Amino acid sequence: MVSENPAATLTLRLLPDADLEQAEQLAAVMTPEVLLAGDPVIEQGASSAGLWFVREGRLSVEVDGGAGPVQVATIEPGHWVGEVSLLNPGPASATVRAAEPCELWHLTPEALDQLRVDAPLVALDMLQTLSRDLVERIRATDHHLRDRLGVPHPEDAPTGWFGGALKRLFGAEGGPA
Amino acid sequence: MNSLQLLREAPGLDLFTDGELEVLDRVLVARAHKRGTLLVREGASVDAVTASMFLLLAGEVDVSTGRGANTVHLELLGPGAPFGMNGLIDHSPRGADCRAKTDVVTAELTRLVFDELVRSHTGVAAKFQHVIARQLAKDLRHLTALVQQAAAGDEDGLRRRLGMAG
Hints:
The structure holds 2 protein chains of 2 kinds.
Chain A: H1 6-10, H2 20-29, E1 31-35, E2 40-42, E3 47-48, E4 51-56, E5 59-64, E6 69-75, E7 80-81, H3 83-87, E8 90-91, E9 95-98, E10 102-107, H4 109-118, H5 120-149, H6 160-170
Antiparallel strand pairs in A: 1-10, 2-9, 3-8, 4-7, 4-10, 5-6, 5-9
Helix pairs in contact in A: 4-5, 5-6
Chain B: H1 3-9, H2 18-27, E1 29-33, E2 38-40, E3 52-58, E4 61-65, E5 72-77, E6 82-83, H3 86-89, E7 97-100, E8 104-110, H4 111-120, H5 122-151, H6 155-161
């Protein structure tokens, strides 16, 4: 369920420890974008920089491993894509497009730098959220790579949507696509 | 060379002003280690209170996982790179071995000191968290490329790239 207050939407996951005023500070440096169904957000292989937060609508994530695009995930309101390109700009590893009409908020690397100056505690809160998310995704990717190479796992199987997306794309045992 | 000078010269720390690097230098604990020293051990538990992470100030650190013929060399870190970040994020067991490939200088930051840094110098803490998140994003991009290479059928090339025996 999306809140009627745009800033409050950010507190769902991106700023779990923030109050409404702090969420508004983040919203102030993000740029709203409206998309129609099918519009691209990120193209696999193309240079990308920035995070897209889903305010309304759903995004579809597709990966083409050489045998045609495979949908690996759907991004719902209150969630986001592009944190890797926000922090380490470069070629995108997946194509993201609007599965239906969407309202997104775009955070560029420059806007993140500005937020760090204007509201360091808000920037810190968001960067900690992104760091936890990245650690989970690294764990899932590491788990998958170990399966492929036959390297024993030091811990339990990965959880979360990213581990599931990898399995859907490459198979539960890491077999070729 | 003292630790502040190493912080000034580390390429990954360009976000910080000189005054902020002086703050960091006061809270980080710098130590020199000989080549071959195991700095972080895969699978080691991380205590939520005494947890720590490291910043590489000089030299190179090899990040690897697995044992024997299954050893995978994931990444080679240089000055300015943070490692062992899960100590500050989710306190999960260490995910890889980090071993000094050369003589190195590291700077350790504990969870407790970082929490104090958040209270006393929020802007510096935010920049430090940015450095951590940036390295995590770089690590994920690197791992994703390895998985894509395997998915493309080049498993032998991947094994060579990772320095695996056989």
